[in-house]
Amino acid sequence: MATTVEVRMERLTAEAFAPYGQLIAAGEARADYARPLLDVWHLDYRADAPTRIQIMRYHEQPMTFHRLERHVRVTEGRIPLAGACAVLAVAGATGAAPDSMPDPASVRAFRFDGTCGILFAPGTWHSLDCFPLGAPTADFVLLSDEATEDEIESWREPANGRRTHVCDLSSAGIEFRIVE
């Protein structure tokens, strides 16, 4: 019998998300560059392959999961479109070995309110899906790289690769459920 770990939704703020990456939003701090009528904030995006920008549409589903994935060579970004509201689970980076798993008690869930996106720090674990809130779908811009996305799209089932690691906690009898 599986143990269900309840993960409470949290508001997505720069401070709360800092251990996992950064927000894609205009900063409150001074702009990195400015000229008349323009302010620019730099974000720490890194990739070792050509960038790929794609649209992902997540469909409403029960907010349960047992798999987490991480990308080790790219700073993956997700930006909600049209004010999409959704929730996504994350856990901090662990050892470099593909089979290292995060502590189930460390998993957190952040609510997107449609006003900002995120950039994961390389190695940050996250649920494979976002879960739409209040709508049947939620569209996101995904910022990644071609090599990582080609690897993922070649799999029939999520698996460990050179660029992406997947941990399936159902093998340890654990399932996660996101709750309000």
What is the strand and helix layout of this fold?
Elements: E1 3-11, H1 14-17, E2 21-24, E3 33-35, E4 38-40, E5 51-59, E6 64-65, E7 67-71, E8 77-80, E9 86-91, E10 108-112, E11 117-120, E12 125-127, E13 131-132, E14 137-145, H2 146-153, E15 164-168, E16 174-179
Parallel strand pairs: 1-10, 1-16
Antiparallel strand pairs: 2-11, 3-4, 5-14, 6-16, 7-12, 7-15, 8-11, 8-14, 9-10, 9-12, 9-13
Task: Describe the overall structure.
This protein has 180 residues and is mainly β. It has one domain (3-179): Ureidoglycolate hydrolase (Jelly Rolls, Sandwich). Helix content is 7%, strand content 44%. It has helices at residues 14-17, 146-153, and strands spanning 3-11, 21-24, 33-35, 38-40, 51-59, 64-65, 67-71, 77-80, 86-91, 108-112, 117-120, 125-127, 131-132, 137-145, 164-168, 174-179. Strands 1, 6, 7, 9, 10, 12, 13, 15 and 16 form a nine-stranded mixed sheet that branches. The radius of gyration is 16 Å and the shape is globular. The relative contact order is 0.31. The mean pLDDT is 95.
The CATH architecture is Sandwich
Q: How many beta-strand runs? A: 16
Number of domains: 1
The percent of residues in helical segments reads under 10%
**Class by alpha and beta content:** mainly beta
Element string (H = helix, E = strand): EHEEEEEEEEEEEEEHEE
The main β sheet shows up as:
9 strands, mixed
CATH superfamily: Ureidoglycolate hydrolase
Which consecutive residue ranges, at least 5 long each, have pLDDT under 50? none
Q: Please report the number of helical segments.
A: 2
Q: At the first level of CATH, what is the class?
A: Mainly Beta
The CATH topology annotation reads as Jelly Rolls
Strand content: 35-45%
